[in-house]
Design a protein that fits this description.
Elements: H1 3-11, E1 22-27, E2 37-38, E3 48-50, E4 55-60, E5 63-68, E6 84-86, E7 99-106, E8 112-117, E9 126-132, E10 135-141, E11 147-155, E12 162-168, E13 172-177, E14 180-186, E15 198-200, E16 218-227
Antiparallel strand pairs: 1-16, 2-3, 3-6, 4-5, 5-16, 6-15, 7-12, 7-16, 8-9, 8-15, 9-10, 10-11, 12-13, 13-14
């Protein structure tokens, strides 16, 4: 592994899934103002498209972040430029194995979907980290429609920075928040693989009428995906 990647992994905290974990992608969101490509610092170069409604190059409490504006729930029209979208690739699907997503963010709004790959209409299942009433929910739902969720007890819509890790293993789904285990839910989910992009900031397919977009409002510092 290159030295720069080793250093970056040390700087981006995450709950490891196993000693054989593989980095699928790291988006540090430290691009300058006006940049429309989020560079993947991981080994596969899975760069993301940044919607023009998102402000890049924002500095808050020493971190360079992306800022997502406020959009009222169920208020049409949809805003596809509100999303960061990583094109679909099999390496971002959980498949049948262990999988972990870590995100550092701050918000004062609820509810919203923060990061996901797929949504309820997805063939092949999907996963997401969302928040409702300020509580985080980590969900893995497989191709058969069977899902396992873990919910935080803490509320996070307080404007402070939070780091959350949503992870699936062979028999549990866990949610860590700010370095502490918030929830563990026993349960097994089968294979999850879909043809949808990984999105940060809301749903990719929605109209704000029949399907709410659940747009995130606030700042995101980084997203990291680990498999295995």
């Amino acid at each position: 592994m290159p030295y720069w990647l080793t250093l970056l992994l040390a700087l981006v905290p995450v709950t490891p899934t196993s000693s054989s974990s593989t980095v699928a992608g790291i988006w540090t969101f430290d691009e300058p103002k006006g940049e429309r490509t989020a560079v993947d610092r991981g080994p596969d170069g899975l760069d993301a498209r940044v919607g023009k409604d998102i402000t890049t190059g924002v500095v808050h409490e020493g971190a360079t972040v992306y800022r997502f504006p406020e959009i009222p729930p169920n208020s049409p029209p949809a805003h596809p430029e509100h999303l960061v979208a990583v094109p679909d690739t099999a390496s971002l699907d959980p498949g049948e194995g262990a999988y972990a997503v870590t995100i550092r963010f701050r918000t004062e709004s609820s509810p919203s979907n923060i990061v996901q790959k797929g949504q309820r209409a997805s063939g092949g299942g999907y996963w997401k980290i969302e928040q409702d009433d300020g509580r985080l929910r980590c969900l893995f739902l497989d191709a058969t429609g069977h899902g396992v969720s873990a919910y935080s007890t803490s509320r996070i819509a307080d404007g402070a920075w939070h780091t959350a890790t949503c992870a699936r293993t062979a028999d549990t789904v866990t949610l860590d928040l700010d370095g502490e285990r918030e929830a563990t839910t026993p349960g097994t989910t089968g294979a999850i693989a879909n043809g949808w992009p990984l999105t940060i900031g809301g749903k990719p397919e929605c109209d704000q009428v029949w399907v709410g977009c659940d747009y995130f409002s606030g700042d995101v510092d980084f997203v990291r995906v680990v498999t295995g």
